[in-house]
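Hi F.,

I've been meaning to write this up properly since the lab meeting, where we talked about keeping a consistent format for the predictions we share between groups. The idea is simple: the sequence comes first, exactly as it goes in, then the C-alpha coordinates exactly as they come out, then a line or two of notes. No screenshots and no reformatting. I'm using this chain as the first example so we have something concrete to point to.
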Amino acid sequence: AQQVLAALKARGARQVVLLGALGGRRIEHTMANFATGLFLQRGGAQALLADEQSEARFLLAGGTLCLPRGPWQYFSLFPLEGEALGVTVEGAAYPLRGAALRPDYPVGVSNEWEVPEVRISLQQGSMAVICTRPD
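Output, unedited:
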Protein backbone atom coordinates (compact mmCIF):
# COMPACT_ATOMS: atom_id res chain seq x y z
CA ALA A 1 0.00 0.00 0.00
CA GLN A 2 2.85 2.39 0.80
CA GLN A 3 4.34 1.69 -2.65
CA VAL A 4 1.06 2.61 -4.34
CA LEU A 5 0.87 5.85 -2.37
CA ALA A 6 4.50 6.67 -3.23
CA ALA A 7 3.79 6.01 -6.93
CA LEU A 8 0.75 8.29 -6.84
CA LYS A 9 2.76 11.08 -5.24
CA ALA A 10 5.59 10.62 -7.74
CA ARG A 11 3.08 11.16 -10.56
CA GLY A 12 1.71 14.27 -8.86
CA ALA A 13 -1.69 12.78 -8.03
CA ARG A 14 -3.62 14.86 -5.51
CA GLN A 15 -6.96 13.06 -5.72
CA VAL A 16 -7.87 9.39 -6.05
CA VAL A 17 -11.38 8.42 -7.17
CA LEU A 18 -12.57 4.85 -6.55
CA LEU A 19 -15.63 4.25 -8.76
CA GLY A 20 -18.08 1.51 -7.84
CA ALA A 21 -16.61 1.50 -4.34
CA LEU A 22 -19.89 1.78 -2.41
CA GLY A 23 -22.73 -0.67 -2.01
CA GLY A 24 -22.76 -3.91 -3.89
CA ARG A 25 -23.47 -7.40 -2.63
CA ARG A 26 -20.43 -7.73 -0.36
CA ILE A 27 -20.41 -5.31 2.54
CA GLU A 28 -16.86 -6.31 3.48
CA HIS A 29 -15.61 -4.86 0.20
CA THR A 30 -17.34 -1.56 0.95
CA MET A 31 -15.74 -1.51 4.40
CA ALA A 32 -12.33 -2.27 2.85
CA ASN A 33 -12.85 0.62 0.40
CA PHE A 34 -13.51 2.99 3.32
CA ALA A 35 -10.28 1.81 4.95
CA THR A 36 -8.43 2.38 1.67
CA GLY A 37 -9.94 5.86 1.33
CA LEU A 38 -8.86 6.77 4.85
CA PHE A 39 -5.35 5.43 4.14
CA LEU A 40 -5.09 7.54 0.97
CA GLN A 41 -6.39 10.64 2.73
CA ARG A 42 -3.88 10.20 5.55
CA GLY A 43 -1.17 9.81 2.91
CA GLY A 44 -1.97 13.21 1.43
CA ALA A 45 -4.24 12.33 -1.51
CA GLN A 46 -7.86 13.44 -1.43
CA ALA A 47 -9.89 10.24 -1.60
CA LEU A 48 -13.36 9.95 -3.12
CA LEU A 49 -15.44 6.77 -3.16
CA ALA A 50 -18.39 6.79 -5.56
CA ASP A 51 -21.23 4.87 -7.09
CA GLU A 52 -24.41 5.90 -8.92
CA GLN A 53 -26.23 7.01 -5.75
CA SER A 54 -23.55 8.29 -3.34
CA GLU A 55 -20.09 9.75 -2.84
CA ALA A 56 -17.91 9.49 0.24
CA ARG A 57 -15.12 11.90 1.17
CA PHE A 58 -12.83 11.92 4.19
CA LEU A 59 -12.16 14.66 6.71
CA LEU A 60 -9.17 14.50 9.06
CA ALA A 61 -8.35 16.38 12.27
CA GLY A 62 -7.85 20.08 11.72
CA GLY A 63 -9.52 19.94 8.32
CA THR A 64 -12.42 21.77 6.71
CA LEU A 65 -14.59 20.58 3.85
CA CYS A 66 -16.73 22.94 1.77
CA LEU A 67 -19.46 20.78 0.32
CA PRO A 68 -21.52 22.15 -2.60
CA ARG A 69 -25.07 20.89 -2.84
CA GLY A 70 -24.82 19.80 -6.45
CA PRO A 71 -27.15 16.87 -7.20
CA TRP A 72 -27.28 15.75 -3.56
CA GLN A 73 -30.22 15.69 -1.19
CA TYR A 74 -28.54 14.43 1.99
CA PHE A 75 -25.13 14.35 3.59
CA SER A 76 -24.12 12.24 6.56
CA LEU A 77 -21.13 12.30 8.91
CA PHE A 78 -19.63 9.11 10.32
CA PRO A 79 -16.70 9.04 12.77
CA LEU A 80 -14.14 6.46 11.65
CA GLU A 81 -11.68 5.96 14.51
CA GLY A 82 -13.50 6.53 17.77
CA GLU A 83 -15.00 9.91 18.53
CA ALA A 84 -14.86 12.82 16.13
CA LEU A 85 -14.48 15.92 18.31
CA GLY A 86 -15.08 19.58 17.61
CA VAL A 87 -17.39 18.92 14.67
CA THR A 88 -18.91 22.09 13.22
CA VAL A 89 -21.48 22.10 10.42
CA GLU A 90 -22.60 25.44 8.98
CA GLY A 91 -25.30 26.04 6.39
CA ALA A 92 -27.26 22.85 7.07
CA ALA A 93 -30.75 22.05 8.31
CA TYR A 94 -29.15 20.57 11.45
CA PRO A 95 -26.10 22.72 12.26
CA LEU A 96 -23.49 21.66 14.80
CA ARG A 97 -21.00 23.73 16.76
CA GLY A 98 -18.08 21.92 18.42
CA ALA A 99 -20.02 18.64 18.67
CA ALA A 100 -18.71 15.21 19.57
CA LEU A 101 -19.84 12.42 17.23
CA ARG A 102 -19.54 8.84 18.42
CA PRO A 103 -19.42 5.75 16.20
CA ASP A 104 -22.10 4.03 18.32
CA TYR A 105 -24.73 6.79 18.04
CA PRO A 106 -25.34 7.99 14.44
CA VAL A 107 -26.42 11.57 15.09
CA GLY A 108 -24.74 12.75 11.86
CA VAL A 109 -27.07 10.85 9.50
CA SER A 110 -29.23 12.51 6.81
CA ASN A 111 -28.56 16.22 7.15
CA GLU A 112 -29.61 18.61 4.36
CA TRP A 113 -28.32 21.80 2.77
CA GLU A 114 -29.89 25.16 3.74
CA VAL A 115 -27.48 27.12 1.54
CA PRO A 116 -25.68 26.18 -1.72
CA GLU A 117 -22.49 25.14 0.14
CA VAL A 118 -22.19 23.53 3.58
CA ARG A 119 -19.00 23.99 5.59
CA ILE A 120 -17.84 21.10 7.80
CA SER A 121 -14.84 21.26 10.10
CA LEU A 122 -13.25 18.79 12.50
CA GLN A 123 -10.82 19.39 15.34
CA GLN A 124 -9.93 15.80 16.37
CA GLY A 125 -10.46 12.36 14.83
CA SER A 126 -11.52 11.39 11.34
CA MET A 127 -14.84 11.20 9.54
CA ALA A 128 -16.43 9.93 6.37
CA VAL A 129 -18.71 12.52 4.75
CA ILE A 130 -21.26 10.81 2.52
CA CYS A 131 -23.47 12.64 -0.01
CA THR A 132 -26.57 10.89 -1.34
CA ARG A 133 -28.86 11.67 -4.29
CA PRO A 134 -32.62 11.96 -3.77
CA ASP A 135 -34.48 8.66 -3.30
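Notes:
The chain has a mean pLDDT of 94.
Strands lie at 15-19, 46-50, 54-60, 64-68, 74-79, 84-90, 96-101, 117-121, 126-132.

If this format works for you, I'll send the rest the same way.

G.
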